[in-house]
Amino acid sequence: MGFEKFLFYVFALITLWAAGMVITRRNPVHAVLFLVLAFVSSAALWVLIEAEFLGIVLVLVYVGAVMVLFLFVVMMLDVDLAALRAGFIRALPLGLLVAGVMAVEIFLIVGPANFGLEAFPPPDAAPADATNTRDLGILLYSIYIYPVEIAAVILLVAIVAAIRLTLRRRPDNKSVDPARQVRVKKGPDRIRLVKMAPEVEEPFGASPTTESGETS
């Protein structure tokens, strides 16, 4: 077994272990951290198959932006851990059944019968000046242009739906209307100017005087 295959098995085991910890941890913050580890190890697998662009994008976009945002959101939410623990035990048999069915389906689809070396032989070695970024861009925007556009529309609809659900009006929510702020004019109903007489302060250390001028 070569060193490259050894690294593949190491990162594959780390990815599977981290993915299992994501769905079994009771603390949501710990689950998000294990998900970050799963993404990093998956990026290492992408690098091993000479897809450096996908590995770098996985680290920069998901680990560096999306997962950090998830971590802050989870930390700011008031999650009831007791309710989560009670629901986990109650839903464990059904979850194991669904996980087993999904594992069998994945094995039947991506198993050796469909994705073995007979169906997909090892590709030829790429030249030194080859760039997978250019090859990936040509594939995405030529052969797979329609799936890319459909995915973009779905993501746009998801963003609009998330904004609509978040910006619903609440009676206890204090918000500012920018249109009303722009229409504000200077007038007696908005601004009141008050002129006050200056106050004379006694010098420091001086004795206060009465109205007749005598010192107390």
From TrEMBL:
* Record key words, sorted: Cell membrane, Membrane, NAD, Quinone, Transmembrane, Transmembrane helix, Ubiquinone
The reaction(s) this protein catalyses: a quinone + NADH + 5 H(+)(in) = a quinol + NAD(+) + 4 H(+)(out)
Q: Where in the cell is it found?
A: Cell membrane
Where do transmembrane segments lie in this chain? 6-24, 31-49, 55-79, 91-113, 143-165
Give the record's family classification: Belongs to the complex I subunit 6 family.
Q: Name one Pfam family in it.
A: Oxidored_q3
Keyword Nucleotide-binding in annotation:
no
How does this chain sit within the bilayer?
Answer: Multi-pass membrane protein
Which Gene Ontology terms cover its molecular function?
NADH dehydrogenase (ubiquinone) activity; quinone binding
Report what the protein is called.
NADH-quinone oxidoreductase subunit J
Organism listed in the record: Imhoffiella purpurea
The protein's matches in PANTHER family, at most eight in alphabetical order, are given as: NADH-UBIQUINONE OXIDOREDUCTASE CHAIN 6 (PTHR33269:SF17)
Quote the subunit structure annotation.
Answer: Composed of 13 different subunits. Subunits NuoA, H, J, K, L, M, N constitute the membrane sector of the complex.
Report the enzyme's class at the first EC level: translocase
Q: Name one GO cellular component term.
A: plasma membrane
Give the superkingdom in one word.
Bacteria
Q: Does the keyword Transport apply?
A: no
Any idea of its EC number?
A: 7.1.1.-
Here the segments flagged for biased composition (Polar residues) are 207-216
Instruction: Using the UniProt record, give the first listed, main subcellular location.
Output: membrane
Protein function: NDH-1 shuttles electrons from NADH, via FMN and iron-sulfur (Fe-S) centers, to quinones in the respiratory chain. Couples the redox reaction to proton translocation (for every two electrons transferred, four hydrogen ions are translocated across the cytoplasmic membrane), and thus conserves the redox energy in a proton gradient.
